[in-house]
């Protein structure tokens, strides 16, 4: 029984000692922003294919008062799907539209 326990601990130690492959750190490859009293816009992109852009405009009229935001973001999901979400956020709330594609259907 003692030999089986020692063998089990040795096997467990061997499994835990194996190194996981390291991923390269994600870097920002593009970044831009502009802010003023009437609104803002920004965008960024990272080395792993993630990106986001957004534009916000301050509205002060009879139809809407407050911020009206339009934007999009995209990323590659763990299963390899390319996800892109485009959205509007205004007096009607947050309104996203999602699109999923595989790498082979990207052109």
Order of helices and strands: HEEEEEE
Round the Cα radius of gyration to an integer and report it.
24 Å
Largest sheet: 6 strands, antiparallel
Strand content: over 45%
First-residue to last-residue Cα separation: 60 Å
Inertia-based shape? elongated
Given as residue ranges, the uncertain stretches (5+ residues, pLDDT < 50) are none
Structural class: mainly beta
pLDDT averaged residue by residue: 84
Strand tally, please? 6
Q: What is the number of helices? A: 1
Helix content: 10-25%
Spatially, the strands of the biggest sheet line up as 1-2-3-4-5-6
Could you characterize what this model shows?
The chain contains 1 helix and 6 strands. With 107 residues, it is mostly beta strands. The protein has a 6-stranded antiparallel β-sheet with strand order 1-2-3-4-5-6, with no helix packed on it. The model has no long low-confidence stretch (mean pLDDT 84).
Keywords:
Insect_cuticle, mainly beta, 107 residues, 1 helix, 53% strand, 6 strands, elongated, six-stranded antiparallel beta sheet
Topology (elements, then pairings):
Elements: H1 2-17, E1 28-36, E2 39-46, E3 51-60, E4 65-76, E5 82-90, E6 93-101
Antiparallel strand pairs: 1-2, 2-3, 3-4, 4-5, 5-6
GO molecular function, one term: structural constituent of chitin-based larval cuticle
Region (Disordered): 43-64
Protein name: Endocuticle structural glycoprotein ABD-5-like
